[in-house]
Here is the input.
Amino acid sequence: MADDVTHEVTDLLQHLIRNECVNDGTAASGHESRSVDLLKSYLPKKGLDVETFEMTPGRTSLVARIEGSDPSAPTVMLMGHTDVVPANPEGWQRDPFGGELVDGEVWGRGAVDMLNLTASMAVATKRLAKSGFKPKGTLVYLAVADEEALGTHGAEYLVDREWDAVKADYVITESGGVPLPSPTGPKLTVNVAEKGAHWCKLRVHGTPAHASRPLRTDNAVVKAAEIVRRVADYRPETRIDEVWRRFVEGMSYPPELAAALLDEDRLWNMVQHMSRVDLARTAHACTHTTFAPTILHGGTKTNVIPDSVELEIDIRTLPGQTAADVGAMLDEIIGDELRDSVQVSGISNDEASASPIDTPLWGAFERLCGRLSPGASLVPSMMTGATDARFFRRKGVHAYGFGLFSGRIPAREISAMYHGNDERVDTESLCLSTELWEGLAQDFLT
Here is the structure.
């Protein structure tokens, strides 16, 4: 049976990768209808109610439902997105959209983020429907568009305009379930929170002049460079919240390391010098508002002093922080002497979101992981990026990021694959995730 499941989910993942649903942030990109057509042909006609929704032509989402018999029982949604970020073939060992199976690993953009889970959720849903699964609670499978670009054409649209179709008590999406080594055995993260995304655009103004006479000119590029330097040097307040505390305690780190990771006065200096760069980045991001200058445009011609530069900054906030807090920090970064030269505008304004840890679904996760990943235990974690879970949390839905990976590919390698090169997933992980979703429905919804 495991061989059959592995073959089926591997094949579906390969097809999803080859559909090349690349989302570059524009409304005309994505083309998620390709993968919705594939899923419609894959999912059975009996045992499932299937609907599709489309805010923008080609940006299609699919909802499949196994209706429960008890209206008071919970509804669980398995949510995977079908779009992927662009990939530069020059940085890859293999075709990023070839979906090749090599030595038990499927290669391609989306293999980890998150077509592996989208495929495994679909396979589990199909297997349950074909088996005649009759749960008390309702199971919903959502293959959603536009996750990689703010969710405007996907989850946000569905939650705001088609709530009856996607209403749920619990939502499970990316990412988690990658085994992390610890002194007391492997730990599986469950994302129970995610940081807020406050992307902004700074237009820096100067005065045009001939570039052959640069002395004492009002050069917008020079001003922008100074702002970038200040952003890189900015040191926001360190904050230790309950999710980070429970993560550190759950990882069973050596006492000295754990104490430093939970000390607001020591953590900043420690992460600057840690040999474990992956842990340093995680610790920093989970305990600070972060600022990353990512896009810079300016100038018109080599011999013209530029009068305008556009700088985009990716800002991620901690739970409880608002747009006003972000504005105050930007004011501090820009400073009085540059303030009159800078115009700030917002690109996105999503506050951080979180779900409770101690819920019945968490208990089901623990039971299933005890069976599918013996010796492993769960730890809560915060997602430093963003997922579509935030739209559902705003509606009071408990949302978690989870899956189940075999450990064949080390956690630090998987982490580097998100939006990176040589993205791939092993077939054992695909089978484990499929068994997780099928087992969860049978455990929690019956």
